[in-house]
Amino acid sequence: MGTDPAALRARAALRARAGLLLAGVVALLAVLVGCGPSDGPGDGAGRSPGAGPAPWTGPLPPVVDRVPTRDAVVFLTYDDGAERDPRFIDLVRERRLPVSLFLTDSVVGPGYAHFARLRSVGASLQNHTLDHPALRGLPYAGQRAEICGQQRKLASRFGVRPRLFRPPYGTYDTTTLRAAADCGIAAVVLWRATLEPDGHLTYTDGPHHLNPGDIIAVPSGEAPSLTLTERTARLLDELAERGMEVGRLEDHVGHR
Fold it and tell me: Rounded distance, CA 178 to CA 193, Å?
């Protein structure tokens, strides 16, 4: 039995219109998905539900343990926030010390008022994670939650979003750097010298004395033999004898 050419043409026209309609629907869905809200790079916008944030793919922040400079300065950085010696506030104010405080939320706890006072006399507040875990080897989402979570805490309490981050224990991997960048971190700060609880300096590598540009870490000690103020004052006396002073770390690192 023959086929009516007019009927064939009509069916072909219907199929073409249906194809155009389907293509239009697909294009519209693509536009709607691409226009979803975004919190910034790497936040996972437009990804399938439950996929989590997408790892950062842009430039990674540098990792520094010293600053290349000819100026006779070193940089004082304090970790965790467990030691809340009230006399330390007076020392920072009287000496006009540009110290950097890397704070951990679970360690600081209810002591944020102490650090607000320190900030008011010139200290800068930086990121040391929410709960102080060793980050290396953890999944991207977990590392990002630790770093971005502390960014949000410091922003809500002090109105600041730190540009510097110190990984707990100094351990990190490429995933850490990606998560840090995704959270707005411009530099990951390690250290070359440590001010120990007894007031002595130890060194990770290189010469066993301070050089210009060295970053000094002051960890929170358990029942230290000297208070935070006493240790810092002794270090300042040593620096003065060597013709050195404390510089502001944020003036040298963390710029993009």
Answer: 26
Cα distance between residue 16 and residue 9, in whole Å? 11
Say yes or no to pLDDT of 165 above 50: yes
Nearest residue to 252 via CA among 75, 21, 40: 75
Q: Tell me the range of 45-54, 140-149, 223-232 where mean pLDDT is highest.
A: 140-149
- Please give the angle made by the CA atoms of 64, 65 and 67, to the nearest 5 degrees: 75
What is the DSSP code (8-state) at residue 48? P
Q: 66: closest CA among 253, 239, 219?
A: 253
Task: Write out the two tokens for 15.
Answer: 């199929």
Amino acid at 161: R
Question: φ and ψ at 124, to 5 degrees?
Answer: -105, 150
Report the alpha-carbon distance of residue 62 to residue 86 in Å, rounded: 34
Secondary structure (3-state) at 31: helix
